């Protein structure tokens, strides 16, 4: 008889998981899969938000620890990096400011700075941390016959504010379908309001700055940065 048990058991994430590795709970044991080396593109000169995090003692309330407190990998439980993905935007302000300074030498980014400021001023995420892809942009979406068929590159998987991944609304979707997207999303998700949209726009601006500042050797990523910047600028003008 077929089993209903899922091969990969997914627990409720703590903010910032899984840190330096993509962690999978398989059969009650925790396997660690280190990040792949950086490839050419916006992360070839690593965003400061990707620095290695300090180690702290494991959280005894972590679901995996309650299941198997003796597992050696659990001794490397680490806190969320305040400059990575999924965190409050104000906590990574210096990263965005450095990227903005680099891009501002070549083009007007007033609209991106406005989006970032609005996102920082918006109410922080009040829901439980959500699992995040962490790098959800067009180059990591496989499209065939006008439909998204797969998502790739999970090297930045983390958890926290879903606004991080929702930046893809401006990075990928054309303007005429964004309103429909938010309506559909609100029908299936919780904590969806104007504050979430403001934070998502701010994350889109942050990603645009990353791509524009660090993609001199990658035309595809530079194009994504320009497209995202233009989407935010045009929406601001409407």
UniProtKB/TrEMBL annotation:
Q: Which residues cross the membrane?
A: none
InterPro entries for this protein: AGP_Transferase, Aminoglycoside_PTrfase, Kinase-like_dom_sf
- The species is Natronosporangium hydrolyticum
This chain's protein is named Phosphotransferase
Q: Which Gene3D superfamilies does its entry note? A: 3.90.1200.10
Q: Which domain of life is it from?
A: Bacteria
Q: Where is this region: Disordered?
A: 1-89
Q: Which residues form the Aminoglycoside phosphotransferase domain?
A: 81-186
